[in-house]
Amino acid sequence: MLHIVLQAATSAPTPKAYVDDFGSDAVVLRIHYWIADPRRRDIFAVRSAYARRIKARLEAAGVTISPASNRELQGRIGVDDGVGPGETD
């Protein structure tokens, strides 16, 4: 199935890859490719298959992708009682 999905991406125009950003723990890439017959469900399947293929090729080249860093968030969240301005219960 993966092979069939990847064939949906056409070779013309040529796919392009750009480095979009260097984050503190990530290199963000932007990939442009064309799909011959784009239907919504096919677009998601092709994008997912393309990402898995890129990850496999990076790993085969010895590039490891680590999980995102855990971050601890602190703060307060207010809960609205559902009564609008000027209204009473």
Written account of the structure:
The protein has 89 residues and is of the alpha+beta class. The chain has a domain at 2-60. Helices cover 29% and strands 15% of the residues. The protein contains 2 helices and 2 strands. The chain is flat. Mean pLDDT is 77; it is low at 1-5.
Concise synopsis of the structure shown:
This protein is an alpha+beta fold. Helix content is 29%, strand content 15%. It has helices at residues 2-6, 40-60; strands at 16-22, 27-32.
List the helices and strands and how they pair.
Elements: H1 2-6, E1 16-22, E2 27-32, H2 40-60
Antiparallel strand pairs: 1-2
Q: Tags for this entry?
A:
89 residues; alpha+beta; two-stranded antiparallel ribbon; disordered N terminus; MS_channel_C; MscS_channel_C_sf; Mechanosensitive ion channel MscS C-terminal domain-containing protein
